[in-house]
């Protein structure tokens, strides 16, 4: 059995998505069928459209989604029909050494990056041919089949648009600040790039009490949003950026976050922090983009440069706590949503993103 599902698919070489109807199979053992409530339009989807990363093709795009469990496969015990879930774009295998050590964010058994279910199959077809769910989510589709470990139950009071963003940008930003950097109250931070991910970093910095919080972006609109989210200083990048940050922080920020995915901004990150500071790469650059760092200067000043993938999120731990922080009014995720759109408007959302417009577009089903 299968069901038709309106979906936005990407074919290698195309910069836009094709709206079509795919077939979604019934959930097999260990997997669940989710009726999508909302899907965010994220910078990582754009990387794929712009040819920055290679993937199996064709692909149902979208990896930032939330919805309702419609059916469960044999042996599923974590969720039940009717539960509201946030989808994780890196499902843990739960068996490898990393998973068993509580570090499921570096799981070696997951097939998420191959866009495959744990048994190596894809639940999607188009005209009988296989189609792949991006990062084994494929949330730009009315239905998805995902592994049980990639569907995390959350309270029903959390609206789907908010829940979808918790699944990627908010978890990534919060995790970079809390799980990876470990920012302490009263310490300074600079955030370079204040799109959906950068604004999520600012929300988390405000929550943990960082001060000052310096936002850097090319777009005046994005900087206005950053101010609204809790940034105390807003800067447009220039040749004097490091000097401006030093002046505002008394010698350099304790923490710096890159949330664009650009080689040059990653290379400039260590210049924004003080000796002993921590620079965190959150934005993901195109494949094969080596960066050049002055290793002697880094070592002599005791600075760290670390990578943060998905904020080292443990979905089963972090999604529910982010949902609770939202419900308690401590993490106003809803303010990230600049545009609620239909699936058919997805290409316009990517065009707006390429122009540096909109904080976050969310597709509502
Ligand atoms: N200097 C400063 N800001 C810049 C620059 C630059 N040279 N170039 C782009 N920006 C800003 C844009 O104006 C925009 O506000 O970076 C921001 C990027 O935001 P989005 O396009 O909304 O992307 P987002 O979804 O936030 O993702 C950012 O994180 O997870 C990764 O793959 C994702 O690499 C992507 C990054
Ligand atoms: Zn994302």
Account of the 3D structure:
This protein has 365 residues and is α/β, with parallel strands linked by helices. It has two domains: 185 residues, Alpha-Beta Complex (Quinone Oxidoreductase, Chain A, domain 1); 137 residues, NAD(P)-binding Rossmann-like Domain (Rossmann fold, 3-Layer(aba) Sandwich), CATH 3.40.50. The protein contains ten helices and 18 strands. The strands form three sheets. Strands 3, 5, 6, 9, 10, 17 and 18 form a seven-stranded mixed beta sheet that branches. It has a six-stranded parallel beta sheet with strand order 13-12-11-14-15-16, sandwiched between helices. The longest helix has 22 residues. The mean pLDDT is 96. Zinc ion (ZN) binds next to helix 3. It comes from Arthrobacter cheniae.
Task: Summarize the helices and strands and which ones pair or pack.
Blueprint: E1 2-10, E2 18-25, E3 31-40, H1 43-49, E4 59-60, E5 65-72, E6 84-87, H2 97-100, E7 124-126, E8 129-133, E9 143-147, E10 151-153, H3 160-181, E11 189-192, H4 196-208, E12 213-216, H5 220-229, E13 233-235, H6 241-249, E14 253-258, H7 263-268, E15 273-281, H8 295-300, E16 304-307, H9 315-327, E17 339-341, H10 346-354, E18 361-364
Parallel strand pairs: 4-8, 11-12, 11-14, 12-13, 14-15, 15-16, 17-18
Antiparallel strand pairs: 1-2, 1-4, 2-7, 3-5, 3-9, 3-18, 5-6, 6-10, 7-8
Helix pairs in contact: 3-4, 3-9
The structure holds adenosine-5-diphosphoribose and zinc ion.
Adenosine-5-diphosphoribose binds at residues 42-44, 47, 169, 172, 192-198, 216-219, 222, 237, 259-262, 265, 282-284, 353, 356.
């Amino acid at each position: 059995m299968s069901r038709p599902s309106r979906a936005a698919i990407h074919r290698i070489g195309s910069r836009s998505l094709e709206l079509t109807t795919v077939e979604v199979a019934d959930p097999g053992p260990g997997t669940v069928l989710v009726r999508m409530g909302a899907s965010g339009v994220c910078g990582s989807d754009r990387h794929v459209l712009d040819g920055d990363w290679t993937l199996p093709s064709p692909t149902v795009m979208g990896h930032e989604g939330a919805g309702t469990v419609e059916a469960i496969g044999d042996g599923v015990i974590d969720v039940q029909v009717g539960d509201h879930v946030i989808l994780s774009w890196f499902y843990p295998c739960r068996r490898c050494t990393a998973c068993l050590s509580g570090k499921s964010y570096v799981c070696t058994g997951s097939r998420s990056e191959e866009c495959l279910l744990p048994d190596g199959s894809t639940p999607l077809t188009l005209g009988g041919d296989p189609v792949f769910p991006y990062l084994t989510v494929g949330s730009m589709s009315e239905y998805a089949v995902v592994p049980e470990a990639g569907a995390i139950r959350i309270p029903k009071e959390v609206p789907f648009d908010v829940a979808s963003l918790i699944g990627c940008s908010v978890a990534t930003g919060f995790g970079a600040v809390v799980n990876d950097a470990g920012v302490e109250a009263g310490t300074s931070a600079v955030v370079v790039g204040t799109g959906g991910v950068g604004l999520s970093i600012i929300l988390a910095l405000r929550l943990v009490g960082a001060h000052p919080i310096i936002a850097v972006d090319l777009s005046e609109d994005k900087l206005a949003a950053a101010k609204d989210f809790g940034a105390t200083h807003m800067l447009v990048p220039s040749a004097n950026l490091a000097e401006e940050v030093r002046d505002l922080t008394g010698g350099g920020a304790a923490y710096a976050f890159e949330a664009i995915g650009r080689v040059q901004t990653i290379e400039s990150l260590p210049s924004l922090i003080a000796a002993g500071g921590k620079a965190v790469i959150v934005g993901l650059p195109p494949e094969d983009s080596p960066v050049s760092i002055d290793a002697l200067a880094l070592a002599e000043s005791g600075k760290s440069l670390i990578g943060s993938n998905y904020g080292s999120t443990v979905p089963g731990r972090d999604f529910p706590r982010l949902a609770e922080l939202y419900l308690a009014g401590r993490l106003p995720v809803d303010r990230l949503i600049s545009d609620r759109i239909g699936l058919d408007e997805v290409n316009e959302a990517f065009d707006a993103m390429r122009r540096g417009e909109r904080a976050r577009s969310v597709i509502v089903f």
